[in-house]
Write a structure and sequence with these properties.
Helix content: 10-25%
Structural class: mainly beta
Largest sheet: 6 strands, antiparallel
Number of strands: 27
Distance between the termini: 48 Å
Oligomer: single chain
Number of domains: 2
Number of helices: 7
Shape: flat
Strand content: 35-45%
Radius of gyration: 27 Å
């Protein structure tokens, strides 16, 4: 709102309702904002609103064109940063607009925007009390089995259509209309992507001169200058960072194994974070060449999901034999000797009355001795489950960087929600504290 009017109303006053509707229809991700260039001390809150010489910068592949009163006045080359206020017009790459026009984007656009990552939402806060959240991914990142399960089970109302029952379809072919089914032994679950909190940078690069040759990458040069042409991303990585990759160690504990499964994933810093490197550009003159000055600050890193080329196989989940929970512990592993530890877990099982051999007899869980399915929620209660204490052996390296642990529950949904426009999927994710990961099935 500006003096009682929306920004859209003001745009209409300088054009027309029809013209603005055409723009909204053709460019739904239209984005207009004031520049913030910290290293040149250009801040939106310092804009002089009486200044009629503030240009509009239109992003183009080769740079940006600067307009004043509708006339193109100047062109900035790619990598050039203006040391003055400007309104930037581009398309927002950080949001998704579901059902943009049926939901009334024009009158309440801020209510229909979904951020691709919660890190992009300034109003977002982190709920430390829960390790279950969700993330939006495109169709190419979701297997058809999970999508089909979400089409049958997508409600949040405690009915037989509850999204909690998606694994009943995935493993047993159970639907609201066909409430028994045989175990599909060809299905497996996988950790498909991970996302690491940028704050982890301040703790995990602790092995820098290892005699074993494994070194955690860290920033060696916080500033770098390049003359005449801008540096590439690969060049900045080479000049500012030391070589190497972080070694993420996943330990998956299940009730059917005496030892935790160990999976290792090596990932480079550029696979984990957008660095948001600050750039200051100096024009060339008769006396000097143009210069590109780069600065990197870990406090400005933004996490990004890293989809794994080789997904972590968690194996099939036969709840007639295996507990309803799986435990996942994550470390950033350093070199050193392994130490063996034994951990004790309380495992929770479904009662055998839910099964006849490989056949599951109902949706969700039912009470022992009852012929009626659990119906409502797939709750974990004494009346429908059995608890068993089990010890599992794990082997960890000396002084590992613990990134946290979490539990995966059989009756967690794989897909929380299907967004129809554009077609994306709100996937259930698991948070260990410093790291989150998503699961797929195939």
């Amino acid at each position: 709102m500006i003096n009682g009017e929306t920004f859209r109303d003001i745009l209409i006053a300088y054009s027309s309702e029809e013209e603005i509707e055409t723009i909204e229809r053709e460019i739904p991700y239209l984005n207009i904002y004031l520049t913030r260039t910290s290293f040149l001390k250009v801040y939106p809150e310092d804009l002089d609103v009486e200044d009629n010489e503030t240009p509009v910068a239109v992003s183009q592949s080769a740079g940006a064109a600067l307009y004043l009163n509708g006339e193109k006045e100047q062109t900035l080359g790619k990598g050039e940063v203006p040391g003055f206020h400007a309104f930037v017009v581009n398309q927002n790459k950080r949001v998704i607009i579901p059902d943009a026009y049926t939901n009334g984007l024009k009158s309440a656009g801020h209510k229909t925007i979904i951020f691709k990552s919660p890190n992009f939402d300034g109003n977002n806060y982190k709920d430390e009390s829960s390790d279950l959240k969700s993330a939006l991914v495109g169709p190419g990142s979701v297997e058809s089995k999970a999508i089909e399960a979400a089409q049958y089970f997508n409600k949040d109302d405690g009915s037989i259509y509850s999204k909690a029952f998606q694994r009943d379809f995935i493993y047993y072919g159970i639907t609201p209309q066909k409430q028994t089914g045989s175990l599909n032994r060809s299905v497996s679950e996988y950790i498909s992507y991970i996302e690491v909190d940028p704050n982890a940078y301040f703790t995990i690069p602790n092995e820098r001169n290892s005699p074993a040759g494994h070194n955690d990458p860290y920033i060696d040069n916080y500033e770098y200058e390049r003359k005449r042409r801008p540096a590439t991303e690969a060049e900045l990585l080479e000049k500012m960072w030391t070589e190497g990759a972080y070694n993420f160690r996943f330990e998956v504990s299940t009730s059917t194994m005496s030892e935790a499964q160990v999976k290792l994933i090596p990932l480079r810093p550029d696979q984990l974070w957008d660095f948001n490197v600050d750039l200051q550009y100096t024009h060339s003159t008769w006396f000097r060449s143009s210069k590109y000055a780069y600065k990197i600050d870990p406090n400005k890193f933004i996490s990004k999901p890293c989809f794994l080329e080789k997904m972590i196989d968690l194996g099939k989940w036969n709840i007639a034999e295996e507990a309803l929970y799986r435990m996942v512990t994550v470390y950033e592993e350093d070199s050193g000797a392994e130490e063996e530890h034994t951990k004790t877990f309380e495992m929770i099982y479904a009662h055998k009355t839910n099964f006849s051999g490989d056949v599951k007899l109902n949706i969700g869980l039912k009470k022992a001795g009852s012929n009626v399915g659990g119906g409502g929620t797939a709750g974990v209660e004494d009346s429908v489950t059995e608890k068993v204490t089990k010890s599992i052996t794990i082997r960890i390296k000396n002084s590992p960087n613990l990134l946290g642990k979490t539990k995966i529950f059989f009756y967690d949904p794989i897909i929380d929600r299907i967004v129809r426009f554009p077609q994306v999927y709100d996937m259930r994710t698991y948070h260990t504290g410093s790291l989150q990961f998503g699961i797929t099935v195939k």
